[in-house]
Design brief:
303 residues, Alpha-Beta Plaits, four-stranded antiparallel beta sheet, Rossmann fold, 26% strand, 13 strands, six-stranded mixed beta sheet, globular, single chain
Length: 303
Amino acid sequence: MLHLTDVCFRYRAGAPLAVDRVSLQLKPGEIFGLLGPNGAGKSTLMALISGLRRPQEGTIQRAPDVAARGGFALVPQEHAFYPMLTCRENLEFFGGVLGLKGAVRLSRVDAAITASGLEQVVDKRASECSGGLKRRLNLAIGLVGDPRLLLLDEPTVGVDPQSRAFLLDVVQSLRRQGKTIVYASHYMEEVQQVGDRVAIIDHGRLLCCGTLDELLTQTQLRLSIRAGDTLTPEVHARLVAECGLETAADEQGWLSFLVPAGREVEDVLRGARACGLKIMSFQYGCRHLEDVFLKLTHRSLRD
C-alpha cells in the first residue's frame, strides 16, 4: 500500500530535520496510529506521504491504485473548506476538483454526507456549523473521492465527547470497508482504541513501531486504587520509600500506580495499607499506551 525508506525532510538549510530517516510500510486495510507530541513531525510526515512536500532524502513508494487520482485523501488539522459555502456545496466543489461529474459526483457526495452524519445540515453554511460539525465536514470532503488510503491528521481536535465517539466509530467503519487509514494524533486513548499498529515519533524519528500488544508488553502493569481519603504527602512519601510505588496519575478518584517488576500485587497492597493508605477497592492488570509514550518521549513540555 505504502512504503517509506529513510525519508528525510528539513524546512530550511541548517535547520534540524523535521523528519529524520523514517522507514515504514502500510498494510492494506489497517489503521496505522501515528503518535507524537506537538512538533514531533507528524504533520510533516503526512504532508510527505500525501505529496504536498517532497522528501530531500529517501523514497516514498505508493501502490498504483493509491497513486492514482483520488486514490488517497489527506484530512488536515486545519478546517479545509470554504466557510461561505454550504456543506453540500463544499462537497460538490471538491468532488469537481477530483474530476467527478454527473451521477457519480452526486452519489459520492451523498455517500460522504451519510458516512459523516451530515444529513441534517447539508444546506447550512460551513461557517455556521459547530466545531464537531466542521470536523465531520472535513472528513466528508476527504471521503468524496472514495480513497483507498485516508490520512487523518488530528481529526478530533477541539470536539465534544459525542463528536469524538462518532468520528472514532466512522474510522472503524471505514476500516471494515477495506480502507487503509493513517491516524495521526497525540490522544493516546484514541489510538489505543482504533489502531491495529502504532508508531511513536518524536524529533522527527520513529522511536517504535508495532502492534498494540507488542508495544504494551514493554510496560509495567498498573494498579489502580480507590482510596477512602485523600493521599497526603506523608503517605505518598512512605509509598515511594517503602513500597517502591510512585503515583502515575489521579484519574477520576482512582490512584494509578506502576507495579515494580517482580513484586506480587498482594504484597504491594499489604505494604500500601501499612503505609496508611485506606483501600476501598482496586483494579490490577491494565497496561496503557501512555506509559510507553512517556517512557520514549519523556515528560518535558513541548511547544
